[in-house]
Design a protein that fits this description.
It is a single chain. By secondary structure, this protein is of the alpha/beta class. The chain has a domain of about 200 residues: Vaccinia Virus protein VP39 (Rossmann fold, 3-Layer(aba) Sandwich), CATH 3.40.50. Helix content is about 45%, strand content about 20%. It is built from ten helices and seven strands. It has a seven-stranded mixed beta sheet with strand order 3-2-1-4-5-7-6. Strand 1, helix 3 and strand 2 form a beta-alpha-beta unit. The radius of gyration is 19 Å and the shape is globular. The protein starts with 7 loop residues before the first helix and ends with a strand.
Length: about 290
């Protein structure tokens, strides 16, 4: 397999197209994903010390988490802002927004909030897609109040996160896809805890910690796991399936995805896919 060169402009454009395209599919599988996502949200709010009356920013909010949960905690005296690159994701989040939450289209790499705008910045599996992580961390430190907290989740190595990696691995093997360029942003680009801790410290954060956390994903069946992967696969990947096998619904392809999680099947038929994430916590010096 050859390695493609990284183009940051093309990457951003593709990300926007992809997340827009899968927004409704992602929402249709929300219950499956939140089997693991909800406990991570709870842990992030705990790490961030989110409480009534605070101002909270959620980077890469997608269809609204953890912003919606944070809004319930900060209450009417608080304020939550969720940003995401994809307008259609933001539209779905806004449809569910309470009065104290605002969702807007925004790029993590070009945030323009005033200094000290937020008490807490949250991100659940969104920071990995930043093109310039060092600049992003500096911006986050700037928009936090002195003593404000960044609490974020990012994925560990692919092998340790089967919920997110196993289906794609099957598809990549069947389609003989090229590998991406080393160091490019992507789901597993922040898997090195020592590197991330060093980058946060370089950006001016104090009290930096990186913890491993096992996300308890539970899917009702291998077939449901295949369906999850199908609805969240980006259009370019579906085009390749159609070109190679004649239809995006190619039965052997999705059967192979389902078969890949058979080793994780429990006696009750459900599929347990514990996946390791890194939980980051860092305090702004102001």
């Amino acid at each position: 397999m050859t390695t493609a060169a990284f183009d940051p402009v093309a990457f951003k454009n593709t990300q926007r197209v992809n997340w827009n395209a899968i927004s409704s599919g992602w929402l249709s599988c929300e219950a499956d994903f939140e089997s693991g996502g909800a406990p991570v949200t709870a842990r992030l709010l705990e790490l961030g010390g989110v409480r009534a009356g605070q101002r909270v920013l959620d980077i890469g909010t997608g269809t609204g988490q953890p912003a919606l949960t944070a809004a319930a905690v900060v209450g009417p005296a608080g304020r939550v802002v969720g940003i995401d690159l994809a307008p259609e994701m933001i539209a779905l989040a806004a449809d569910r927004a309470p009065a104290n939450a605002e969702f807007r289209v925004g790029d993590a790499d070009s945030m323009e909030f005033p200094d000290a705008s937020f008490d807490v910045v949250l991100s659940r599996w969104g920071l990995m897609f930043a093109v310039d992580r060092t600049a992003l961390f500096r911006t986050v430190e700037r928009v936090l109040t002195r003593g404000g907290v960044l609490a974020a989740a990012v994925w560990a190595e692919p092998a340790a996160a089967p919920m997110m990696s196993l289906g794609y691995r099957v598809l990549a093997e069947r389609l003989e896809l090229p590998t991406g360029p080393a160091g490019a942003p992507g789901p597993f680009s922040m898997a090195d805890p020592d590197l991330i801790a060093a980058e946060l410290a370089e950006a001016g954060f104090a009290e930096v910690s990186v913890q491993l956390y096992e996300v308890p994903f539970l899917v009702e069946s291998p077939g449901r796991y295949a369906e999850f992967n199908k609805v969240v696969s980006p259009p370019g990947l579906k085009d390749k399936i159609r070109e190679r096998f004649g239809s995006v619904d190619d039965a052997p392809t999705w059967a192979a995805v389902g078969a890949a999680v058979e080793p994780y099947r429990r006696p009750d038929g459900r599929v347990a896919l514990p996946s390791t994430t890194l939980l980051l916590r860092a305090v702004a010096n102001g």
